[in-house]
């Protein structure tokens, strides 16, 4: 004869109320959204910048084939027209220069010593193939990013006339 163990009733499964289920679903959706936004921002960390200067490109060691924007000044004496709409010129920040090749019509205000932002593909070895060129719009305007980069290098003076690269910035 065996002694029977007293049996306890099994506890009933705890069920979530409708309000608790809704809050759990909202919290899970919020966590997924937060994770997705974090992954997107992490992936875009280098492309959020409006443009890179020639020195930044050289220091970062950008891989050939990378699509980006290059900004700086059109180097004096570097503009060469290669027949038709082909043109090559150098973009500089006063420290480093990158040779740019472009096929197409240039903006009317494009000239040596002026601020420019080009968009295209970095080909490596100091060469950039542009598919669009943006120039400043009047005699006193320069994109803030270009002006800031040139001020850091000491090659731009606000409100100055002539070539901005000729006058060092005042401390």
TrEMBL record:
The keyword Protein biosynthesis does not apply. It is found in: Cell membrane; Membrane. The keyword Magnesium does not apply. Its main location: membrane. It is a single-pass type II membrane protein. Residues 1-22 are cytoplasmic. The chain crosses the membrane at residues 23-44. Heme binds at residues 137, 141. InterPro entries: CcmE, CcmE-like_sf, NA-bd_OB-fold. Keywords: Cell membrane, Cytochrome c-type biogenesis, Heme, Iron, Membrane, Metal-binding, Signal-anchor, Transmembrane, Transmembrane helix. Residues 44-171 are extracellular. Pfam families: CcmE. Belongs to the CcmE/CycJ family. NCBIfam families: PRK13254.1-1, PRK13254.1-5. Heme chaperone required for the biogenesis of c-type cytochromes. Transiently binds heme delivered by CcmC and transfers the heme to apo-cytochromes in a process facilitated by CcmF and CcmH. This is Cytochrome c-type biogenesis protein CcmE.
């Amino acid at each position: 004869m065996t002694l029977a163990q007293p049996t306890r009733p099994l506890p009933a499964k705890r069920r979530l109320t409708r309000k608790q289920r809704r809050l759990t679903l909202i919290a899970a959706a919020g966590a997924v959204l937060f994770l997705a936004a974090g992954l997107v921002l992490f992936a875009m960390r280098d492309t959020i910048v409006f443009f890179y200067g020639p020195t930044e490109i050289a220091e970062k060691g950008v891989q050939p084939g990378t699509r980006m924007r290059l900004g700086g000044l059109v180097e004096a004496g570097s503009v060469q027209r290669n027949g038709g709409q082909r043109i090559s010129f150098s973009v500089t920040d006063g420290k480093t220069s990158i040779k740019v090749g472009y096929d197409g019509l240039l903006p009317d205000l494009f000239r040596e010593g002026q601020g420019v932002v080009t968009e295209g593909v970095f080909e490596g070895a100091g060469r950039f193939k542009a598919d669009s060129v943006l120039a400043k719009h009047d005699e006193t305007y320069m994109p803030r990013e270009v002006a800031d980069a040139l001020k850091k290098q000491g090659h731009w003076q606000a409100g100055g006339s002539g070539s901005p690269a000729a006058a060092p910035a005042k401390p």
